[in-house]
Design a protein that fits this description.
22% helix, alpha/beta, Ubiquitin-like (UB roll), five-stranded parallel beta sheet, 8 helices, five-stranded mixed beta sheet, 3 domains, Rossmann fold, globular
Length: 320
């Protein structure tokens, strides 16, 4: 599905390879539902933004879009979000994808090959040869960049389901590279386990996780304004500026920032993605929900702004 994404001001919105959009999809029961879809287009291509919507038997969002989306339709979207992004396009990467998990991986792959100097190895798992999404585009990229791109296909019909033990042999020749993986949870878990068994530093393994959203991330943020005795103080470094606010103890950090006019990044507002991640450099917060950050992330101070409430009387936060 091709989209032209513009801000309310009418200006085009930039994005980075590996990011996703959260779309508002009409619903007769709830008014709307929110669904996140990764971008398969790359920023340098300059054309419309593209998302791949795979029809799922019981998936309301995918079925609605496949049945109703048409040229000229206006669909509300949050700005491009996500941190499944390579730090540099000159970095050598080992990319893992399974099924529709190829979508953000393709955006990263095209960006590195066209705009950077990095080399890429893609290991792409599918049910069978007929299930390979973007097969023609991948074939063309391999032909255009034979010295910088290696593509290895894993077909369940031939090799069975990929398991950590078998994936270890695939990772080993490129274990010194940054690893990006997107796909069904069992597949991603197998890749992470295989990388760990090979001694790959966890910080070099990047995993893209999505869950279905139950709330409305498009709703306007609202917070109560209790007495100052019920507030902590938060200092936030964001986009080169420092802000200081009274932080009601029952309010989520993200809601506070949005109400105070700070354009902090976010997507799901449910603790189910990492778009709003920030880091606590002083003080302590509590996360009411966390479906994406691992213990090492938490130990290093990373938190989800959409689920963070203050514990200590003062907190310092930075967006890196």
């Amino acid at each position: 599905m091709s989209l032209e994404l513009v801000a309310e001001s009418g200006e085009p919105l930039p994005y980075r390879p590996g990011q996703f959009l959260t779309l508002r999809i009409p619903s007769d029961r709830t008014g709307s539902v929110a669904r996140s879809y990764s971008l398969s287009s790359a920023p340098h291509e300059g054309g419309p933004l593209k998302v791949t919507v795979k029809r799922i038997a019981d998936g309301y969002g995918s079925n609605w879009l496949c049945d109703n989306a048409n040229a000229g339709m206006i669909i509300d979207s949050l700005p491009p979000a996500g941190v499944f992004i390579p730090e540099s396009l000159d970095t050598d990467l080992l990319l893992f994808a399974a099924g529709s998990g190829i979508t953000p991986v393709l955006s990263i792959l095209k960006s590195i090959l066209a705009q950077g100097n990095g080399r890429c190895t893609l290991i792409y798992a599918n049910r069978d040869e007929e299930s390979v999404i973007f097969a023609d585009e991948l074939r063309a990229l391999a032909a255009e960049y034979p010295h910088r791109l290696v593509i290895l296909h894993w077909l369940e019909s031939v090799q069975g389901l990929p398991a950590a033990r078998s994936l270890t042999d695939l990772i080993a020749p490129w274990s010194d590279r940054e690893i990006f993986v997107c796909g069904p949870v069992p597949f991603m878990d197998a890749v992470v386990t295989a990388a760990r068994d090979l001694g790959v530093d966890r910080e070099r393994v990047h995993v893209e996780k999505f869950v279905s959203l139950s709330g409305d991330p498009f709703a306007q943020a609202v917070i109560d304004t209790p007495d100052t005795a019920d507030c902590a103080t938060v200092e936030v470094e964001f986009d080169g500026d420092t802000h200081e606010f009274a932080w009601p103890r029952s309010a989520m950090l993200l809601d506070l920032l949005l109400v105070r006019g700070v354009a902090a990044p976010y997507s799901c507002r449910e603790g189910a993605c990492s778009a709003c991640v920030c880091r606590v450099v002083d003080g302590e917060v509590k996360l009411l929900r966390n479906d994406v950050l691992e213990q090492q992330d938490l130990d290093e101070g990373y938190v989800l702004a959409c689920q963070a409430v203050p514990v200590t009387d003062s907190v310092r936060i930075t967006y890196e």
